[in-house]
Every structure is written in C-alpha cells, then in structure tokens.
Amino acid sequence: MSNYAFVLDSHKKPLQPCHPSVARKLLTNGRSAVFRRYPFTIILKEEKTNIGNHPIELKIDPGSKTTGIALVCNSKVIWGTELTHRGFQIKDKLQSRANCRRGRRNRNTRYRKPRFLDPSRAQDTRTKGWLAPSLQHRVLTTLTWVKRLCKYAPIKSFAQELVRFDTQKIANPEITGTEYQQGTLLGYEVREYLLEKWGRSCTYCSKENTPLEVEHIVPRASRGSNRISNLCLACHSCNTRKGVRSIEDFLKKKPELLDRIKKQAKAPLRDAAAVNSTRCALYHQLKITGLPITVASGGKTKYNRIRLGLPKTHWLDAACVGEVVSLKVLTKKPLLIKARGQGGRQKCAVNKYGYPTRHNPLKPIMGWQTGDIARFNGVIGRLTTRSNGRFYITTTSKRVVNIRPKELDLIKAINRKDGYEYGLTNL
After folding, report:
1. Which of 113, 247, 262, 346 is deepest in the core (most CB within 10 A)?
2. How far apart, in Å, are the Cα atoms of 382 and each of 210, 249, 336, 398, 400?
3. From the centroid of its chain, how far is CA 336?
4. What is the pLDDT of residues 258-314, one digit of tens each?
C-alpha cells in the first residue's frame, strides 16, 4: 500500500490525509484536483467536506547519510519517507573547488602575498553554532521537508531521536574515568604512538630496524581520513607497492594478515561525528516553529522497533521514536527522496586538473531543466536537456526515449525540478 494522500481544502489549508482509494474517487468524480505530485497532494474544489482533522505527530530519525521521517496519527503510520543527504558530495565539491583555485593562483598570480598572513584578516568570523556546509546541509534539508509537510498535513507535534554517540567509547570500549579527558595520545606524538601501537615494525611485512613511514590504511584517494584509527607504519617498499590500492586488494593473498590489521585498527567515526554535530542544531530549529517537541534516545527507538516486530528501516525507526505503546503500519511504500542540489552556477566546466573543458549553457533551456519529471507519448521519467534542443527521458527501468526539437511541444510537465529526486512509485 502506498502512502496516504495529503488533502488541502479550497483555501489551501491542510486536512486529514486520506487513503489512496479515497483520493482516486475524489479525482475521478471531479471533486478535487492534483495540487502536487511529490508528496502527492490533492486540493478540494468544494467548500465543505466530510474529511476529519485529527492531530498528526511528525517523527524524525536523523542520520548521517539518510534521515527517516514518518507521520503517525492515532498510533497509525500513514506516511513515511527516507531523505538521502548529499553532505559528503558537498565536501568533495568544496575540496575540488579549493584545489582548482589554488592551482590557478599558483599559475597566474604567484607574486600575490598570502592573505592568511594579513593581521586584519586573522580574526575568526564564524558565529556561535556555526556548522560546516556539509553538516549544515543535513539540518537544512530536513528542516525544509518538515516545513513542507506542515503545509500539507495538520501536524501538531514533533518527536526527534536525540542520540549522542560516544565516539571514544566506540573506538575503545574499555575506556573509563580520566581517560576521557586524557585521550589516546596523552604523552605521545603521533609517530611515537604509532610505533608503540604497531610494535615498531612494518605493518605489512613485519620488518624491523628499518626506516618506517606513516601510511594510510584507507588511501587518501578513497577519502581516507588522517585520524589515528586510519594510520599505520610501513617500510618504504611496502608503502610504494600498496600505493593508492585498498588494503583488501593489497592483501587479498594474505587474509589472516588482513583480518589482524582490521581488528587492530579502529573503526572510522565519520558518520557518528556528523550526527553528533547536527542533532542539537536540528532540535533548536524545530523548537523555533513553536510546536511541542519530544526527544528520545536511540536505545528506546530500537527497543520499540524490536518489541513491535518491525524491520530495520529509517522511516520505521522514525515511527518508533518516543513513547510508543502500539503501532499499526498502514503504508508499505515510503517516498524515497534524494537531495540532488539546484545545480551549480559555474559557466566554465573544468577537468580534474582545473583546466577548462566546455561552456555550460544558461538554464533553463527552452523552458525545461535537467531533473524535471515529465511525460512524453505515454512515457514518464526524468528529463535531460541539451542546448541543441535534443532532449531525452530516462525511466525507472533505465529505458531512454529520445525527443527531437520539433517534438518538444508534446512534453507535459509532472513535477518541476526542486533540488530533489523522487521515487516514481506514486505516479
């Protein structure tokens, strides 16, 4: 069963969401019209209706990569979605832009003095509560969909999982007492710590009494971090032979050594750190709305989900947040939302070395943008535009339909691009 359909009255005020069959009857009888495709919303043409207006609770399960959102009314899950963030893509794009600019400055303006040495620019302009763009994106996209759902449903309260990951406990389950304040590097430099950790020998060949180099277990080319948990020691020959290959590829003929290194190295905590950084920011933004909000721990969410016998998914985790006595799931197909961004404003596309390759045309092209969902000769899919007027539509089954310039008038818009990509289950 699909999600319930949102209902607006003739004055665009939210009413109780209705079953898909009820929405289909209202559309067939001409008593309503489609107001929005994603999320699917109808608007009534009549002034008075028999549809109720019961309070709905919006529940959120924040995550580093995917956030689950569910609407619960009278212990019934009537709507759910999984919102996929693009925080790591934002980080990579910012890093790529910084590298291109640094290379261009080195090529063209080598004489310019470094600005970071200017005393007038030394002060920190970051305000209290500042978050990096990749982290702020997670808060803003979640808040955007909270505001949208408040427009389409009579939401009266919020519930958020306010979990705080103990990253030191994850990295070292036996940590206690003053070790929290001392940290893992107390009294050690990084190299000295690694020498003690890896037995003053090469991690891969166990060679001793030879110059050792600091080596990344997950290569930097594969977004490996500089954390202690991702560093080891290797001799020059092993470090050279490994290069940018993954440790699984490098040690595929030595599975026992691979298992030992993985057990000794600490797990990366990037996702846990992202949730820790954004959880309070999202909570304060929800408080600004003025609606009552309750918070709960991740342990309570897991207890409710296991007690009710529900599968492990983001949107069902959101439905289990807070005080849950019983829960009846009335929908089986949540709306899948993936943040894609509004597109860059860069007019000159560059390659990985920072050199220009092509010119990006102005948007939109003939009234259309890449990412619009449209219908062409009975085929529904995602539209891709070209400056020469040759468009094509890609369906969910990866079928590609080409559109010639003289056939552009046959395209019918279903959902205009708004920075998100949706599952086509509700079409």
Report:
1. 247
2. 58, 37, 15, 10, 10
3. 12
4. 888 888 776 556 777 788 888 889 999 999 999 999 998 888 888 889 899 999 899
Pairing verdict, β 41-44 and 66-73 = unpaired
Question: What is the second-level CATH architecture of the domain 56-87+132-165+271-339?
Answer: 2-Layer Sandwich (3.30)
Q: Using the structure block, give the residue that is written with the tokens 């948990």.
A: 229
CATH topology of domain 340-427: SH3 type barrels. (2.30.30)
pLDDT 10s digits, 240-255:
999 888 888 899 888 8
Spatial distance between the Cα atoms of 26 and 34, rounded to a whole number of angstroms: 10
CA atoms of 46 and 24, how far apart (whole Å): 16
Strand partners for 394: 382, 400
Between 1.10.30, 3.90.550, 1.20.120, 1.10.10, what CATH number should domain 179-264 receive? Answer: 1.10.30
Helix (H) or strand (E) holding 348: strand 348-350
CA atoms within 13 A on the CB side of 56: 27
Q: 3-class DSSP state for residue 411?
A: coil
Average pLDDT of span 75-97: 90
Helix (H) or strand (E) run with residue 376 in it: strand 373-376
How many Cα atoms occupy the beta-carbon half-sphere of 101 within 13 Å? Answer: 6
Instruction: Give the pairing of strands 56-61 and 155-161.
Output: parallel
Distance in angstroms between the alpha carbons of the first and the last residue of the chain: 14
- CA dist 92 → 140, 345, 371, 376 (Å): 19, 17, 22, 35
